[in-house]
Structures are given as structure tokens and as C-alpha cells.
Amino acid sequence: QVQLVESGGRLVQAGGSLRLSCAASGRTLRSYTMGWFRQAPGKEREFVAAISWSGSSTHYTDSVKSRFTISRDNAKNTVYLQMNSLKPEDTAVYYCAADPYYSDYDLPTKYDYWGQGTQVTGSS
After folding, report:
1. DSSP letter (8 states) at residue 10
2. Between the CA of residue 91 and those of 13, 37, 76, what are the distances in Å?
3. Average pLDDT over residues 79-101
4. What SS3 class is residue 5?
5. pLDDT score recorded for residue 37
6. SS3 per residue for 24-35
7. Which residues contact 43 (CB under 8 A, 6 or more apart)?
8. Secondary structure (3-state) at 66
9. Following CA atoms 111, 117, 118, 119 in sequence, which dihedral angle do they give, to the nearest 10 degrees?
10. Do the Cβ atoms of 47 and 39 come closer than 8 Å?
11. Coil, helix or strand for 9?
């Protein structure tokens, strides 16, 4: 079993930066694909970013490309999401997730483990 805990979410003014962290326990994340998703009130859970087990492959949804960066430190069992140039449209609860495979990395149903979420608010 893998337990995931997100942290770092807060209110940030438009144009600001924030780094989210996802700490894992129970098992090492070395063999897992990791993803970040977000969900705004009244909307579906949306794929944000994913990273392969080695960190050699990353993927982003179009709306965050060039602004967000996903990274991982397997030695620390931690995944990060660096968010720059935040916009009001980025406001959502952000979740990290772990998947034993890399296929269909953008589908939330493919992930086996989820964190509790952390609130990010981009104010105008």
C-alpha cells in the first residue's frame, strides 16, 4: 500500500509562484508513474502533469505547459509540482496520484493511490 500526502497549497496573487509537494510512505515510489490532477468546484477532475518512474518522461496538459514543472526525488519518496505565473483559472484542489504503469497517464481511473488534496487559489 502507498500513502500520499500533498502539501504547499495556499492563496497566491496572479503571476505568483508556488511549489506543491507529495510525500509517500508505505512503499518506495521508484517503480511508479506519478501524476498531478486538479478539480475545481462543479468541474471534472483534470489531468495536470505526469512523470515516469525514472523522471525521463514528463507530460503536461496544454493549459499549464511552460508554466508548471513536475519533478521527483525517488531517494526522498517525494514528487513536486512547481507552478509559476499562476492564474485565477488555476484555482482548484490539487491531488497527486501513483500508478504502477505509464500507459494512459492522463486518466484518473488508471491510478491506484491518491492523496487527500491541497487547495491552490490564484487571486486576481
Report:
1. -
2. 11, 12, 28
3. 96
4. strand
5. 98
6. EECCCCCCCEEE
7. 92
8. coil
9. 100
10. no
11. coil
Residue 89, φ and ψ in degrees, nearest 5: -70, -15
Residues 6+ apart with CB under 8 A from 86: 12, 13, 14, 15, 16, 17, 18, 67, 120, 122
Provide the grid cell at 9.
497549497
Question: Which amino acid is it at 67?
Answer: R
- Going by C-alpha positions, the residue among 86, 69, 68, 67 that lies closest to residue 16 is 86
The answer to whether the CB of 1 falls within 8 A of the CB of 26 is: yes
DSSP helix/strand/coil, 75: helix
pLDDT tens-digit readout, 10-42: 999 999 999 999 999 876 666 789 999 999 999
- Annotate 86-117 with three-state secondary structure: CCHHHCEEEEEEEECCCCCCCCHHHCCEECCC
Cell of 82: 512547481
CA distance 94 to 55: 20
